[in-house]
From TrEMBL, chain B:
One GO MF term: heme transmembrane transporter activity
Annotated localization: Cell inner membrane
Principal place of residence: membrane
Membrane topology annotation: Multi-pass membrane protein
Record keyword Membrane present: yes
Designated name of the protein: Heme exporter protein B
Family: Belongs to the CcmB/CycW/HelB family.
Biological processes per GO annotation: cytochrome c biosynthetic process; cytochrome complex assembly
């Protein structure tokens, strides 16, 4: 069991790192897009005025 | 024009063009020979190739088919033939079947010359039944040409063009390679009885592969060739 | 939508954590029926199999969305198909990773040409081609069309590859029936909990990606307004 422990721990840690990393990256991108959208719509409003 | 005659016209066009230049069959054949020489040097002092005879043959044929498949559409695209074909009142799936049959004929011609050469020069022999061997080759060829024609139409319409084809064609054709190698290895080794079962199931998977992808290509070719 | 995503993500995480806790604290260490030895690395299975099945489901979903796109020609289906391939690819990498860990723990080597893992390797190569293909196409409509076609072709190829690879005799005996059929009692509970957790997690990730689609769509419209 002892020599197998690092691999099992590695698997569980690794999966969480990848999954949470993905969640983080996607949310980051999403908020970036939203920011861009906000800025753009403001610019459009100004232009329309 | 009926469907059969449309397909026939496209095949005939490809054959006439090929007879004029002879570039595809000749270059494919030379390529197969070159791979054989490369195998000889790659395996060093090995003289007995029989345990992996099927592998040698199919690696060579798969890469050779790649050469022909790329050629068949690069040709059409560069000379503006594809636009002509699309403008003509030919059903889109019939274009596919025409091109596929053309590719199949060229690949088969190359194989008819290359298989005996491989057998002689690498000291191989077919211990099992020859008709089964031919059936395995034909089934694999159909699969190669169906998938290859479909994917080369995709790749020719991208910016990477013929660079892309190996990247998508080799993984998708991996079932063909596995089944073709399993069946030809078994037949060439002359296995019998219980050991023959994998050969049969390999051929069944090959047949299933051919049918599935013929249906997929028939349904999807409209979307592939452009609108 | 935002709320639903958060709730799904929450449920998924809680279930996954429960699954882990259950697997390590409650479920006994599995015993190899052949040798009678305890096999600790079997605990990898509680994550390995849910991840594998989620990624397969994802690839099938990608093909379904692709077909829907070809049928209805709505951009959202293309986006969903792309998102499903992307997620399936990520989960596939996790399958490879956990599978390699299993190999190393069980047989002391990092890579075995074992049927299931080999199938996954080919799958990964196939879907890498998907991304390369998409990036080498200029127009968005062609991208979507070819993406959908390729997603369908690849999904059709998955079962064929799997059956083909099984023809080659495997060198090593399969220690456990990793379809989960051999599991009983607490082991099965831990497995199912992880499985459901992973599904919830997956759906929330897919929805997050889909949300991105709405925003980028609006952005495009605005950009067109400014440009025009």
């Amino acid at each position: 069991m002892k020599d197998q422990l690092p691999y099992v721990v590695g698997v569980y840690m690794g999966i969480w790192v990848v999954l949470l990393g993905y969640v983080f990256i996607v949310n980051n991108k999403l908020s970036g897009l939203k920011k861009e959208l906000g800025a753009l719509s403001k610019a459009v409003e100004k232009k329309n005025k | 024009m009926s469907g059969g005659r449309q397909i026939g016209a496209i095949v005939k066009k490809d054959i006439i063009a090929e007879l004029r230049t002879k570039e595809m069959v000749v270059s494919m054949f030379l390529f197969v020979l070159l791979i054989m020489v490369a195998f000889h040097y790659g395996f060093g002092t090995t003289t007995d190739f029989s345990p992996f005879a099927g592998g040698l043959i199919w690696i060579a044929f798969l890469f050779t088919s790649l050469l022909g498949l790329n050629r068949s559409f690069v040709h059409e695209k560069d000379e503006g033939c594809l636009e002509g074909l699309l403008l003509s009142p030919v059903d889109r799936p019939n274009i596919f079947f025409g091109k596929m049959i053309g590719n199949f004929i060229f690949l088969t011609i190359v194989e008819i010359i290359a298989v005996p050469l491989y057998l002689v020069m690498l000291n191989l022999s077919i211990r099992g039944s020859v008709p089964m061997f031919i059936l395995a080759i034909v089934l694999s060829n159909i699969g190669i040409c169906v998938v290859g024609t479909l994917l080369s139409t995709i790749s020719i319409n991208t910016k990477m063009r013929d660079m892309l084809l190996p990247l998508i064609y080799l993984p998708i054709s991996s079932p063909i390679l596995i089944c073709a190698v399993t069946s030809t290895n078994g037949i060439m080794g002359g296995v019998t009885g219980e050991k023959f079962a994998p050969v049969i199931s390999a051929m069944k998977i090959l047949a299933a592969y051919d049918i599935m992808f013929l249906l997929v290509a028939y349904a999807l070719y409209d979307f592939v060739i452009g609108e | 939508m935002k709320k639903a995503i958060t709730i799904l993500l929450g449920i998924g995480s809680v279930l996954l954590l429960t699954g882990i806790a259950y697997a390590f604290l409650v479920a006994p260490i599995a015993v190899d029926p052949n040798t009678g030895k305890e096999v600790f690395h079997q605990k990898i299975l509680y994550f390995h199999v849910p991840v594998a099945e989620t990624s397969l489901v994802s690839f099938i979903l990608a093909a379904v969305f692709g077909a829907l796109f070809l049928y209805k020609r709505e951009r959202k289906y293309d986006f969903l198909s792309l998102a499903a391939v992307e997620l399936g690819f990520m989960y596939g990498l996790l399958v490879e990773m956990t599978g390699m860990m299993w190999d190393k723990a069980a047989w002391g080597v990092w890579w075995q040409w074992e049927p299931r893992l080999t199938t996954y390797l080919i799958l990964m190569l196939m879907y890498s081609g998907y991304f390369v293909m998409r990036s080498s196409i200029g127009e968005d409509s062609t991208k979507a069309r070819f993406g959908a076609v390729y997603a369908i072709i690849a999904a059709v190829n998955v079962p064929l590859t799997f059956f083909a690879i099984r023809l080659i005799p495997s060198i090593h005996p399969i220690l456990f029936d990793s379809s989960g059929a051999g599991l009983e009692g607490p082991l099965l509970v831990a497995f199912l909990v992880s499985m459901f957790g992973m599904t919830f997690f997956y759906v929330s990730l897919l929805l997050t990606r889909y949300q991105m689609f709405g925003v980028s769509e609006e952005l495009d419209i605005l950009k067109n307004q400014i440009g025009g």
